[in-house]
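Example record

One chain of 226 residues, shown exactly as stored in the release files.
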Amino acid sequence: MTKKELFLELAMPNQQGISRWVSVSEFIGKYKELQLGNGGSWCRASSNLAKEYQIEADKSITSGNSIDRIRLIGLNTKKHFNQNIRKDIKDFYKTQNCVMLGVNGNSENTKIEIDHKDGRKNDHRISNPQNQLLSDFQPLSKCANDVKRQICKKCRETNKRWSAKNIKGNPYDFYIGDENYSEELGCRGCYQYDPVEYRKVIVKNISELSAKEAVDSVFKKLYPDE
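Predicted structure tokens for this chain:
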């Protein structure tokens, strides 16, 4: 049995998805696998259990921050974002270098992870592997992906996008839009969303600006009175 199945057998939720409180002291014998240990991955918000049920944890019985008991408080009716990535897309990116740091190593921090560019993960087209495109993803080293995850979390909380000028030498904040997150643009325009596109657009913008200024300068030298 899976951990989800074990807990459901123990908690016995009704048809509305509501169960009794289940104490962690009950995670013995047949249910020993449910012992929470390092955070209890089987009952986290991203778990299979949470995809089907709303989970409530109580930490008020004992001192500290440990979970004392868990219950289900109803069915989860929210549409779930499936984070699975199609195999051919994984295979395409797994041998490429990180687009942030240019590495692809064997150490914990340099190994490649396939990143959903859209940090909000609310585009349900991408949630369906059959509809996924290569351009929806990018190769990031674990350390770069960890940092991006925190940046995206702050953006979700504040609706303020991360400026590329946080990296010394970057001349523009965004390649499209400004710091204000909008449904129209979504994550597009943010360096974290696509650092490769940021570089391409910025090079083009600077080239066009340089060309225009060069033409203006030559024109003024040739026709100083005009």
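Notes: The chain has three domains: 3-75, 81-158, 163-226.
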